Amino acid sequence: MAETLLTAIRQLTLNGQPVKATQSSIHINVWVGEHNKRIASELYLKQNADFESLNLANIAYIGDSLNDEAMFEWLPTTFGVNNITPLLGKLNAKPKYVTRGNGGYGFAELADLLISMR
């Protein structure tokens, strides 16, 4: 069902611009223009940190769906919670590590792992 909706949405135009869409774990993201999590994250960091001196290896990201691919591609330290597993074949850029737990349980698993490594 989600794939059918994505296909239909991607055939739309708004004010002459193509409508873009991607699937999240709980919804479909729809937008016009060039937007993704990486673009928004870079903009935030440029406005609120010394972006040029940031070491991207010190930034970690955890995601759970197709709309996280831009972050998986950009950052060297990425994680996915287990419910991303069925979607891995659709991703060109994948998380470097996938938890055993789904959703919040996977996030808690990762948090426990990081705390234990301190």
From TrEMBL:
Q: Which SUPFAM superfamilies match?
A: HAD-like
Question: Where is the signal peptide, in residue numbers?
Answer: none
Q: Name one GO molecular function term.
A: hydrolase activity
Q: Which keywords label this protein?
A: Hydrolase
InterPro entries found in the cross-reference section = HAD-like_sf (IPR036412), HAD_sf (IPR023214)
Q: Which Gene3D superfamilies match?
A: HAD superfamily/HAD-like
The record, for Pfam families, names: Hydrolase_3
List the protein's name.
Answer: Haloacid dehalogenase-like hydrolase
